[in-house]
Amino acid sequence: MNKTVTLQNGIEMPLLGLGIYAPGTLDEVSNAVAYALAAGYRMIDTASIYKNEEEVGKGILKSGIDRKEIFITSKVYNDEQGYEETFKAFDRSLNRLQTDYLDLYLIHWPVREHREATWKALEKLYTEGRVRAIGVSNYYEPHLEELQTYAEIMPMVNQFEFNPFLFLPDLLTYCKNLGIQPEGYAPLVRGKAEDNEVLNAVAQRCGKSTYQVLIRWSMQHGVVTIPKSVKKDRIEQNFDVWDFEISEEDMHLLNSFETQIRVAEDPMSYL
User: Fold this and answer.
1) Which architecture, in CATH terms, is 4-259?
2) Whole-number Å distance between alpha carbons of 206 and 253
3) pLDDT tens, 179-188?
4) Catalytic residues
């Protein structure tokens, strides 16, 4: 399995990265970023609403790894959206991250009254070369259909909640047909599914943990995957997923769960 995917504009994006969604205690996030980069990760996913961009920036500096080797994603949150407001939010994120560009900038949620203006702002940031790729987050088919009516540049990435308990094959196909790279968050279902018998049986057959199987399942769907953790051992385990493959039969089993578990809001509430 390739460790990167190629976005529609030719940019290489790591297939597996570290997500961090909480501010954490003192130095917890900066240490987690440093642990991840030492373990081999080259992508860090954050957002302004997570209130940890400063710590992410510190962790990158602490790692000693050249900025150009690291793919950094951040997002403009709901109360920052709008055309001019997005530029200000982008600058604040850059300052907190101690960088002069982002690799990927996303609209965090499709806020109805702002999504067109916010997307136009992202297009401008992209054409000015301030960000290497732009995209959306939590956009389902209706949001993407609407976006096509005003976008001059299509999103390179769509990040949404994705795991066997929230399997969205139609959305995957829709994104891929538009040349949009799917990216999945909450691949570990925030620990809510570790007792599932089918998942545990697949993990035993693979000789891996349930968390490693969940990450690998997402990756085998061609989805960029960002498990979240601040613990050193878990961060390392989550990256140890390159030496096995889930069989076609077991992929089918994991694709077939009827129970849905959602850990974030339903994007359809933003129509």
Assistant:
1) Alpha-Beta Barrel (3.20)
2) 14
3) 999 999 999 9
4) 50
